[in-house]
Amino acid sequence: MVTSTLRFLVGYAVRLKETYETLKHMLSSIEYSKHSWHICADLKVIAVLVLLQAGYTKFCCFLCKWDIRNRKKHYIKKVWSKRQFLTSVVKNVENEAQLPQKKFSCLHCTSN
User: Fold this and answer.
1) Residue 10: pLDDT above 70?
2) Model confidence over 70-94: pLDDT tens digits?
3) Residue 58 in contact with residue 67, Cβ under 8 Å?
4) φ, ψ for residue 3 (rounded to 5)?
5) Contact, 95 vs 49, CB < 8 A?
6) Which residues of 12-45 are buried (b: 16+ CB within 10 A; e: fewer)?
7) Across the chain, how many H-helices and E-strands are there?
8) Which one, of 91, 4, 107, 3, lies nearest residue 13 by Cα?
9) Pairing of strands 2-5, 8-11
10) What is the DSSP letter of 5?
């Protein structure tokens, strides 16, 4: 079910898994490419929308090369290099992005 009120759009799917195919279908159903609204979602949905693989991954940020497994540098290194482009099967990239990176901001680093 999709409802629209003023400037807010809410998409809600019952009993559907948060997968690439499901989210791609939802975005096409609400004609996202036509309207290009801003997205507010949990991190799992955002990761799927910007093409990262699910699960425990080494490079879980879609904006930078933050290494989640390098615990020694988590509170020391503040600036992580940006991802220049998202290449499939490299650094946990799995699918084609459904949304541009500029629609989101990086919360754990200051590189963006």
Assistant:
1) no
2) 666 666 666 666 655 544 444 445 5
3) yes
4) -125, 150
5) no
6) eeeeeebebeebbebbeebebeeeeeebeeeeee
7) 3, 2
8) 3
9) antiparallel
10) E
Q: Where are the domains of the chain?
A: 14-91+100-111
User: Who wins on pLDDT, 48 or 9?
Assistant: 48
Report the candidate in 60, 17, 11 with the shortest Cα–Cα distance to residue 40: 11
Query: How far is residue 25's CA from residue 39's CA, in Å, rounded to a whole number?
Result: 15
The DSSP H or E segment spanning 4 is strand 2-5
Given pLDDT bands bounded at 50, 70 and 90, which one contains residue 59? Answer: low
103 pLDDT above the threshold of 70: no
**Which amino acid, residue 8?**
F
Mean pLDDT confidence for 45-53: 70
Q: Tell me, what amino acid is at 28?
A: S
Name which of 43, 63, 35, 47 is nearest 98 in CA terms. 47
